[in-house]
Design brief:
By secondary structure, the protein is α/β, with parallel strands linked by helices. The protein has one domain: Rossmann fold, CATH 3.40.50. Helices cover 35% and strands 24% of the residues. The protein is built from eleven helices and twelve strands. It has an eight-stranded mixed sheet with strand order 6-7-8-3-9-10-12-11, with helices on both faces. Strands 2-1-4-5 form a four-stranded antiparallel sheet, covered by helices on one side. The chain is globular, with a radius of gyration of 20 Å. The model has no long low-confidence stretch (mean pLDDT 89).
Length: 313
Amino acid sequence: MSETNEREVLLSVKDVDISFGEGKNVFKAVQDANFDIYKGETFALVGESGSGKTTIGRAILRINELSKGEITFEGKRISGKLSKAEDREVIRNIQMIFQDPAASLNERATIEYCISEGLYNFHLYKDENDRLQKVDKALEEVGLLPEHKSRYPHEFSGGQRQRVGIARALIMEPKLVVADEPISALDVSIRAQVLNLMNKLKNEKSLTYLFIAHDLSVVRFIADRIAVIHLGRIVEIAETEELFAHPMHPYTISLLSAVPMPDPIIEKQREAIVYADATEEKTGPDYAMREITPGHFVYCTPQQVAGYAKIAE
């Protein structure tokens, strides 16, 4: 799957399957996943709970093993067996912001240690003074104060803890950040602050994000391109505004119909569109990701391409 542009591919997921269990109890969580993430963009992976989006994110971080396919980063394969040096390079360059800011921080460690852990492991500082300066700078970048570093995670609110999680990831100066539902555990009033912060840091540090979410309204605010995943299979990929203007796959249309509208009159009159084939798996040699319009891919058969193309007209 390719696009006609000159953008540099940072990460590529090719024909990836991820399974759990063995024999009769095997469960295929992800099937035939294909997508590229370009340098400097925010690529969103959207789907309902249990669709396999976090499983893909964890596979990129080498937590989940692949049963088929490969993942490449900067042109080098990072899935499967790697040398210790190669493994460390992946950890150094790909960092994760976790969904639950409380569970992802060590409650017994100070904020200073939580943020410094990567610096210690990779010795990314000249001396003790340099390390403290880096921690202070990381805290200031996420809107916290240097004096906060002597406190413990339980002394902070959820939004502040997530800021600590962001600081911990970014202090490593990664090239790719996997953000796994980074705002779903936060109050609605705090979510916009964290999204604005992530956008600001992306522009300042030339970061690339894989943003995993279930809420399309949030993704519209932050993402450049969106991949929609259903039952472990990616069914549609398009640029954000293109996806909202011309959703093609029935599941994407169903997801968009569930996004709440701020106008109570419109919301009252609106009907949610239920995806009729939610329990069916459409598979077979004819089904594949096909480019309907430039940069807009849908999982379909050759016979369905003409029908989807009409939607874009």
